[in-house]
Amino acid sequence: MPRITLSLLLLLAGLGLALAGCEQKGPWYDACSSLCSELAGHCELPGYEGSGACIPNCEEELDEYGSDGDDLLDCYEDAGCSTMDLIECKRLAQTDSL
């Protein structure tokens, strides 16, 4: 009986480690992934190389603005590669002017 219990515990521990390695994708993940790829790839804006920090930061920012997150995302997409327009989007979001 103890052998079965030990085997079961090892199996559950392995399953727990496997599940812990799964990445949870939030509701903004796909939109942020696309935006970050565009900023890094097409626009070649400094600070967006790779999307390691860009995606989580984007998701957090859009979450912060709640229902205005869609408007902010639209603004960022419309800004294209213009750094000044991207900054203006952030300013408009902070002043509830989107």
Which characteristics define this entry?
98 residues; 5 helices
Strand content: under 5%
**Poorly predicted tracts of residues:** 5-21
Find the structural class using helix and strand composition. Answer: mainly alpha
Task: Using the CA coordinates, give the radius of gyration.
Answer: 20 Å
Element string (H = helix, E = strand): HHHHH
Helix content: 55-70%
Shape, per Cα inertia axes: globular
> What's the number of domains?
1
Termini gap: 65 Å
Number of helix segments? 5
Mean of all residue-level pLDDT scores: 76
User: How would a crystallographer describe the biggest sheet?
Assistant: none
How many strands appear in the DSSP assignment? 0
Question: In brief, what are we looking at here?
Answer:
This protein has 98 residues and is mainly alpha-helical.
List the helices and strands and how they pair.
Layout: H1 2-20, H2 29-42, H3 54-64, H4 69-79, H5 83-94
Describe the structure.
The chain is mainly α and 98 residues long. It has one domain. The chain is 68% helix and 0% strand. It has five helices and no strands. It has helices spanning 2-20, 29-42, 54-64, 69-79, 83-94. Mean pLDDT is 76; it is low at 5-21.
